[in-house]
User: Fold these one by one.
Assistant:
Number 1:
Amino acid sequence: MARLATFDDWVDLFRQWQQDIGIDRSVIGDYHFEAKFGELASEDIEFGAYAGQRKWETVLHIPDQRIRDALLNYLIVQGDTEFASVEQQRHLITSAPNDYDLHALVRIMTEEMRHGWQMSHLLVTHFGTSGKVEAEKLLQRRAFKRNRLLGAFNEEVRDWLDFLVYTEFQDRDGKYQLTMFRHSAFAPLARSMPPMLKEEAFHLGTGHNGLKRVVRAGKIPSWLIQKYFNKWVPACYDLFGTDGSSSAHWAYIWGLKGRYNEGATEEPVDLDHLNEAARALYVRELEELIADLNRHIPDDQPTLRLPDLKFRRRIGDHARQSYAVDGTLMSPEAYERHLQEVLPTPQDLALIDDLMKEPDWIEPRPVKA
């Protein structure tokens, strides 16, 4: 492992990472990577045991080593997801259906790289030797080697339907995580969120509007789109964390991570069910998005729906149990057969490949000048 002395040393490793995973920097053009900061929602800590005190500008201001350790871990995980998503999506550049979608993909990948850059900047700037070591590790793990920190970021984004479902659902989880950090007691992290959230909004729009364009094009049947939903949504549920999480409990008490609707709700905080509360808001938003998609589904095709919260969960109260996509508990044998029916099969993937040979599988959209 190289020894980093400055952030410029990390930048050299970042460029090497781009090369190693096959990113052609000419595709990115003259984009200027930099750490960006916005305004604080409040100069004072907004919730938890330290509410009313000034937000912490440096790690030295943080009053407890446990808080510093938890903050370090949050930065590591967030940065890991950003670089992982680029690794998952990088190969789609060669199969874009049109110039608009190619432009959108490149923009999303570039902004995800910048978000990873942002987290690495915080690590190197504020966490000394340990931060430099962890910032370097962010560039050493690989999604395609399945050693990124969160399971959803090791999954294969095989084709463009994967990409659109991913940006609709998985990037939307990212919006929730970033919004909860928007209120963090660590001021540099809180200031990092407004630019990241602004950029993330384009990613979400790409996913939702892209899926509407797919539905309106009428080439990919809704039953097949549903199978992609069944593939990705359970992993997104998992990204909110375990049920009854003590980590989320303490992160709130310490002021590191607020609720998604922090400052906009008068409901008392339920410290023992913070992850569940955020996930419930996410599900409510997804239901509205799917209702919007269903308005474009032809009458002779099945409407789209969310998989049940218990289906294919890998963490939490329902982890690794045999619940069907509608939430029915099944025998293990019946469950294995069920998965073959509700997830993309090799035959389904062959159909997708065939449909995507022509660009009319998605409604065209002009590139803005």
Number 2:
Amino acid sequence: MKKKYFGIIPPIITPVDEKENVDEQGFRGLLDYCVDNGLHGIFVAGTNGETMALTQAERNRAIKIALDQVNGRVPVIAGVMDSSTRRVIENIKALEDMGGTCAAVTSIFYARHTSQDETVRHFEKILKETNVDLIIYNIQPFTGLNLSAATVQKIAALDDRVVGYKDSSGSFGEFVQVLSRYKDTPFSVMQGITPQALSAVLLGADGFVPALAPCFPEMFVSAYEAARDKNVELTWRYNELIRESSKILGMSKNATAAAKYAISLRGFSDKRVIWPQDYTLPEDEEKIKDKVAEVDAMYEALKNA
């Protein structure tokens, strides 16, 4: 069953200028590079996009630019996560005004108490007051709550507009429970932890959401296709390649800065991160540059094997 949301959907970085406004030219170029190289969707204003560090105006601007530049070529999922239901609804209303059709929603955060039941109520009210598709986004390290498989199923049962699940919790057992429930349904199940991604696709997951896909788009698409087609030997060769690429994120104190520098090597965007985050140091950048070149060479060798 072909689903609406599948394949490689990167949590795209947000290039910014020296005033921490969206670098529109760089962002548009990067979006085209991603789509032209086969990525299956764009997740804008997510964690990797520094969405909670942007001003509200620039967050909305990033989403608007993504919708405009992608122009329906692939699906665009917009992060609308926020600290209360009302704030999320306001974010979705802005998305609707921009012509967006899909929002990724987490449980609330920066609260002393967040529960499974509260999260179900959160989605109930959002569904009553908005009209877009919703992706359940489970990212416990940033919300403080790991959504259980039972909670995901309760939310999914609320309305057909709940169309998918992105799991960045790292709880693979819970992920497999959700996957087993929705494997042959229109509901998309995507893995957000890159080291678990190809195993997930081999088990039937619909795709994954890797931070470095904008740096290595063709490689990630090929890896997904190998796992989707159940070519186990080739999948594990790609798994080694992805494991090598993932080392980039640990080559700086700040994984977002490392990703931004790696992607900047493709020539579309600057390495700048939003204050007060740590930047990449010159010695970090040398290591990242060498690793990008190494992964590029490994991918070429694998393609030609």
Number 3:
Amino acid sequence: MMSISPQVYDVIVIGSGVAGLRVALSLTDYRVLLVTKTQLGAGSSQWAQGGIAAAMGSGDSPELHAYDTLAVSGDIANADAVSVLTRLGPDCMRWLMALGVAFDHDQGNLCLGREAAHSCPRILHAQGDATGAELIRALTLSVRQSIRVEVAEACEVEELVVHAGRVAGVMARQGGERRLYRAPAVVLATGGIGQLYRYTTNPPEATADGLALAARAGAHLADIEFVQFHPTALATGSDPLPLLTEALRGAGAILVNELNDRFMLAEHKAAELAPRDVVARAVWHQLQAGHTAFLDARDTIGARFPDHFPTVFAYCRSQGLDPRLDRLPIAPAAHYHMGGVAVDLVGRTSVSGLWACGEVACTGVHGANRLASNSLLEGLVFAERVGQDLRCFLRSQRTSVPSGLGLADMSQRSWPEGEDDRVIRQIRDIMWTDAGLVRTASGLADAIGQLHELEMTDAVRSQRGKNMLTVAQLIAMAALARKESRGAHFRVDYPEATGTWAHGSVWTLKALEAYQMT
């Protein structure tokens, strides 16, 4: 059944992690619809343990933070975007504290931790390892209190409505009913893609929806081959895998195998504090060689573990492990997508009327590899910039949204129905095996072929499955095209970085369709 929303909004925001919530709070003078497919605040943001990076300490500076960010990026980060990120970081922290976010303090001073590839302590935490949950608590409370922000929970956006070359609304499903919502501006803040992989630290919501919506609307995607795998997921066999935060290694925890060999000493001068891509591949190689890899915090954190890392400690205890006494088994898992919808420094995409921010967007700040604890910061900083740009746009825009927008076409559309658990398991297995941490041309070509075959069999019955299949094919195609290794993208057949590929990449759905025709 189709329903027409009786209201036209100024802005529709899709997604309610830190980026979506921050955009909404930047627009409280306007009529905003905040759409989230589960509950308000659900998603990867509230799971974030490690913290949020900003140059708040003595001896630190935005320039030093920018240097560290660029140093791990594989030489393809956007320096202008990095400058924006690190320069605005401290003000962002002050805004959060004014909002009521309770960062950890010691005798009145901010507690600043250090994580991999940071040259000094600059990581703010809340409740030790519950930073994301504290941010979401404060942000959702503020959104709930705003009289101009309408929240639509359990509402899944199925398509961006494009009229006369610009996005002008969304088609969504809520409670079994389809609804057409109209607005001159739509913001994607839908999060990441971790659920494309068999092993991930991401929650069930991370199914690549925003990338699929943008691609089908004709938007450019950037750097989508770069998927970050976290080196220290707790290898319990659960889905998703629990994260053992980077802050554990920042506090001195080491990585060993069952022989008690501290293998990172031979891999990188920074050992356990090497960039994530280096550590993740080292753990992967240990597992491929038949070893078991562990995180060992017994001698370095020891009795302090329950107080400093209560979330991790509670989960370990639920699995019969005590990190004060036991080594913790680890494995790499899909964690973060450096690529996304291509945007400029204020979040505008290549399609008029469409903005993006947070993990779904590619601002270029991460390049080929993300610096630890920069993701929450990026989501918040660039969400505020999206809000600023939208305020300017809404003050100046003279384009009205047609009242009959797309109804005839939408009412005749065949929409996916049902569940796709079996097909989704196949997608995740294919991506993990052939488009995961270590890649080859033959494996990537096989992945593209298998995914295309799934698409051709009409086996996909759900919107979730359709989105995942579309984005999985795009990522595999981009990874096949990049004939080098850089950052999180590692090709066994091209193990070195090359000058030819010392730049980002741009992809469209039309490029995938052209490839499939060859």
